[in-house]
Amino acid sequence: SPFWILTIPSEEMARGLMKRTVCAKSVFELWGHGRSAGELYTSLRNYPVARMLPYLQSDSTYKVHIHTFNKTLTQAQKIQKIDALEFLPFKGKVNLKNPQHVFWILEDYGMDPNNVPAEPFHLYFGRWIADGQRELIESYSVKRRHFIGNTSMDACLAFIMANHGRVKPNDVVYDPFVGTGGLLISSAHFGAYVCGTDIDYNTIHGLGKASRKNQKWRGPDENIRANLRQYGLEKYYLDALVSDSSRPIWRKGLLFDAIITDPPYGIREATRRTGSQKETVKTVERSTDNPIFVSSNYHLSDIFFDLLKFAAEHLVMGGRLVYWLPVYRPEYTEEMVPRHPCLKLISNCEQMLSSHTSRRLITMEKVREFKDQEENSHLVDGQYTPYRGHNSFREKYFSGVTKRIAKEEKDNQK
């Protein structure tokens, strides 16, 4: 159901939640509900009048809205439903443009658009308290962002990740796989100072081929700083460095309040790290003006190992690590989620990618101090073995794609 009934200690707390969430549309003080109009009216009659009266005074103004999920009502039907509430002790005047108090009738007609019932499955009536931040999804849309890449994070998911990281004003937030900085933007919106690193020189400096349709090359002003400037957030931008996340570049000690990142899976962006000539898989020359460097494969299991170790060492106590973990669904188990003795698993949410693949949004919190002698302790007792299976995620992902294409071609031939 799109409607949830929550128990929240105070209206102030409800407003605080809605100032952050991009998932919830609105929150209401529930006065009555039922599975039919009759049940709703009975529920409303049983609601304490003393709790209604402060919002129904003769010197106040009000308005009643109707929202139907999965069905459209005519204006006449809406008026009929509003008139049926005349038994409520409204004493104020109706003001459709700027009312002091707004009330809503919410009707749930189920989730199947091809089988809409004549009557709603559930009805609710309540006083509007606050709206969520759904408009951020549109105002921060990647479609209109100045600088994007092949894997720029969807705005809605970026804000969800910032909320999981409990990002707050004056925090320092870091993304070790920063790309075009999509995750920095959501954190900066909430008042955090942001920085990141990436191994790709061209991405950090906004060089090379553009990812946007009908654009061949990136412009001279396409970079992460320009993205934050676009939203009036440049003052929160610390810097972005060309760096290999598998190599230590930061001084010892606590640096970050949150680490929020989306590591490469090897699908649209390569998983690679710098290495010696012996480790060479391929040699990449950026241009005649830049030195040649050697890159080698960076297995997913090693990415997670390095990421958790880095978070354990450089997060402040109580700081959070939020990242995406790609999984092959037929083989997935909870044991495959990487662990570290300094980090506590807070949440594990799934986003489907295909019938056989998904990615898990993993949130971890630092609960104990990092000690150098314990840096590899989470490799003991086989804890490292289960998530080595992630190394073949790319092969499993494309094997599924190949099978689907073959099936579609076979079906078309029939």
Automatic annotation (TrEMBL):
It catalyses: guanosine(10) in tRNA + S-adenosyl-L-methionine = N(2)-methylguanosine(10) in tRNA + S-adenosyl-L-homocysteine + H(+). Belongs to the class I-like SAM-binding methyltransferase superfamily. TRM11 methyltransferase family. GO terms for biological process: methylation; tRNA processing. Keywords: Cytoplasm, Methyltransferase, RNA-binding, S-adenosyl-L-methionine, Transferase, tRNA processing, tRNA-binding. It is found in: Cytoplasm. PANTHER family: RNA METHYLASE-RELATED (PTHR13370), TRNA (GUANINE(10)-N2)-METHYLTRANSFERASE HOMOLOG (PTHR13370:SF3). Its main location: cytoplasm. The keyword Transmembrane helix does not apply. Residues 144-274 form the Ribosomal RNA large subunit methyltransferase K/L-like methyltransferase domain. GO terms for cellular component: cytoplasm; tRNA methyltransferase complex. Its EC number is 2.1.1.214. Pfam families: Tmrp11_N, UPF0020. Catalytic subunit of the TRMT11-TRM112 methyltransferase complex, that specifically mediates the S-adenosyl-L-methionine-dependent N(2)-methylation of guanosine nucleotide at position 10 (m2G10) in tRNAs. This is one of the major tRNA (guanine-N(2))-methyltransferases. Residues 1-134 form the tRNA (guanine(10)-N(2))-methyltransferase TRMT11 N-terminal domain. It comes from Pedionomus torquatus (Plains-wanderer). This is tRNA (guanine(10)-N(2))-methyltransferase TRMT11. Part of the heterodimeric TRMT11-TRM112 methyltransferase complex; this complex forms an active tRNA methyltransferase, where TRMT112 acts as an activator of the catalytic subunit TRMT11. GO terms for molecular function: tRNA (guanine(10)-N2)-methyltransferase activity; tRNA binding.
